[in-house]
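HOLO CASE FILE
Compound: pyridoxal-5'-phosphate
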Amino acid sequence: MKVPVLDLREQYAGIRSEILSCVEQMLDSSQFILGPAVGALENDLVNYLKVQDTIGVTSGTDALWLALKALDIGPGDKVLTSPFTFFATVSAILNVGAQPVFADIDPLTFNLCPEKTEDVLRADKNHAIKAIVPIHLYGQPAEMNAFVTLGKRYRCAVIEDAAQAIGAQYHEKMVGGMGELGCFSFFPTKNLGSLGDAGLVSTQDSALAAKVRSLRTHGSTEKYFHDQVGSNCRIDTLQAAFLRIMLPHLNGWIAARQRSAQYYDEHLKKYVERVEIPHRIANGTHVFHQYTLRVKGGQRESLRRFLTEMEIGNAIYYPLPCHLQKALKSLAFTKGMFPESERAAEEVLSIPNHPNLTQQQQDYVIDAIKKWTTC
Ligand SMILES: *Cc1c(COP(=O)(O)O)cnc(C)c1O
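Model generated. Tokens follow.
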């Protein structure tokens, strides 16, 4: 049996005709750039995320870049984040001219550790760190109460990288609405994915919203008059229209991911000597963008090979932490600086978990892991 990590064709089968008629409407209207679907999607997402404002942008990467720009972060500034994230979190910091600094992760959740974050902030005597960027990795909220408190205490902004966690809640609050700004990605494989690149910035602050909105169109509010230097970061209207079709399905897709995660939990927890199931925080909901195991005893490659042989999709997010990436060589980070991130990079393995996963497929995956643990 083949079990893919994701099955988007199946996921969109039920909305295919809506998507096709949306393309026809777009051809008829010819409003390709910032057409009415953009404002409508932004409004839908204001309601969904319970925030003051949202701005549709080109990608999650640009959402992060725009959030940093809107806070006037640039050369001479530092931004603190986790080394265990997709590289875009870090490249956005570098692309505004700022310098990334890291604090290690909590080994249970894989998310930025608040205590280690405070250690780094405390040591930052000349207050170069202007923002903290926690990532809600794999779909589980970072400890936002702690980061919001740290932000106030050390006068740093907090930007949520919520690319993997749309719909997740922390103390009953939606992710993306707790920091100064939230950044989302609608890359096709994300929990709410478009049919191409797209992203979103969310905020509770109308002044910041206005700034991001202007930055997304070359820093202008009036055509050909530029108050600041931005770029072309507009969400594509067609993608916005597609996302409006998908958004009403998001909660159902999340519920399906949570159900299959629960099923995995129940059947895999007994192999704790070999694989650890995902830890869940007490006051949050995990939307299981990824269902990620920690494979113990240096055995990840063995399990990975075994699953691949059985045609079970699997993936490593991420095999090399950001501080050890070649692109950051000039910053002179070395191995051993963030040991939990380095260990996670060696031990994590994500197994198929998506809205269209059948119980039969899950049983096949569970059975394969069981076989592996006894061989
Ligand atoms: C996907 C992702 C991004 C980047 O989003 P794109 O839309 O691909 O540019 C940023 N951060 C994290 C944590 C992500 O998973």
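CASE NOTES: The CA atoms of residues 186 and 193 lie 4 Å apart. The first helix runs from residue 8 to 11.
CLOSED: yes
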